[in-house]
Amino acid sequence: MIVIVMGCGRVGEQLSRLLSAEGHQVTVIDPNASALDKLGPEFKGRKIRGVGFDRDILLQAGIATADAFAAASASDNANIVAARIARNIFSVPRVVARLYDPRRAEIYERLGLRTISSTTWGAERIMEILVHSEFDPLLSLGSGEVNLVAIEIPGHWSGRQVKQLMVPGEINVVSVTRKGKAFIPVLGSELHSGDLVHIVVSADSMDRFNQMFGFGEGD
Questions:
Q1: Fewest CB within 10 angstroms: 13, 72, 154, 219, which?
Q2: Is 137:202 a contact under the CB 8 Å cutoff?
């Protein structure tokens, strides 16, 4: 994909590196030359010094043919302005704006802009670790609404079927690893003690998931 990243702070820098490492064509925009320099000589993408919502700068960055645009600067206002220009004027298919103030997220989502609030995500992630420490999520999807967790099947669950672990729309088994070999189970697959099971669980169902295995009940 052709991706433009506005802002080369900690988030923008890491995002740009990740995208470039996966083979995407990345252009990074930042008004601070020293911020762009942090990407180093090994960075294969383009670096443009300028304001990320300036039309000429965006055209120079190739926004007319961009597949995606990420507004990741330290300014909520700048991110929203740039995201709206990318979405509404240049019709970039995928646009995401980083927000510090989560109270603004709902407003901008009504305008058709997808936003990521590091404040909200961080708070939810900390809560998950504190409250649901039995299953530290391997991966949080979206803004933390869905988690990928792994659990080793305890002895008292041995012999039960995968369908007994699933709740439609809330809990779904992705894979089972047994003796070092993984497979995708069916509803009737039997679980063995010691199986490593990867499961996707909605954040709202974590309590229910804990209770399935007897956690969260005064242990």
A1: 219
A2: no
Q: Is 116 helix (H, G, I), strand (E, B) or coil?
A: strand
pLDDT tens for each residue of 24-69 = 999 999 999 999 999 988 899 999 999 999 999 999 999 999 999 9
Q: Closest by alpha carbon to 153, among 103, 194, 110?
A: 194
Whole-prediction pTM value?
Answer: 0.58
Q: Which CATH number fits domain 131-212: 3.40.30.10, 3.20.20.140, 3.30.70.1450, 3.30.70.260?
A: 3.30.70.1450
Q: What is the pLDDT of residues 10-34, one digit of tens each?
A: 888 988 988 898 889 999 999 999 9
Residue 111 tokens, joined: 């305008």
Q: What CATH number does the domain located at 2-119 have?
A: 3.40.50.720
153 touches 162 (CB < 8 A): no
DSSP assignment letter at 135: S
What is the reported pLDDT for 204? Answer: 87
Please check the confidence at residue 131 and state whether its pLDDT lies above 70. Answer: no
Total Cβ atoms within 10 A of residue 27: 21
Decide if 86 contacts 66 (C-beta within 8 A): yes
Nearest to residue 46, comparing CAs of 84, 79, 8? 8
